[in-house]
Amino acid sequence: xxxxxxxxxxxxxxxxxxxxxxxxxxxxxxxxxxxNLRIINATNKKIIQGQEIWLSGKIATKxxxxxxxxxxxxxxxxxxxxEMLTGPFKKWKHIHRFHSIDELxxxxxxxVEFELPFQMIGKLFDGYAYKRxxxxxxxxxxxTINALENY
Length: 151
Description:
Elements: E1 2-10, H1 14-21, H2 26-30, E2 38-42, E3 52-57, E4 66-76, E5 79-86, E6 91-100, E7 106-115, H3 119-124, H4 126-149
Antiparallel strand pairs: 1-7, 2-3, 3-4, 4-5, 5-6, 6-7
């Protein structure tokens, strides 16, 4: 299993950042357009404990559209975890943490634990998957900053 971690700072108060990230629609705002992410269904518009979300998009590859079903398995103020129930990975656990630096700045941290399917064959694509996740989260940080600092 691999772990990817990324942190960045947004020049907005933590409650503004939290409100943005706990609105399910934020996924369509911060995901690279070429992935063509679509929310198929969500059991709630705001992130809540036990919520399930169904997505589609070119998530795992640049070519094929895949479906993804995840669940919020942990939630407390300024932190939540979504885990993939079905989708392109054998395992996907995404921890979202938000930390107030001061009254105007918030640190956003994403920790992703993932494992590819197909055992040894999957391990051959581990580096590709890591780089793809890295690129997606680089975009997500810039899109978050753009959405929250420039509105």
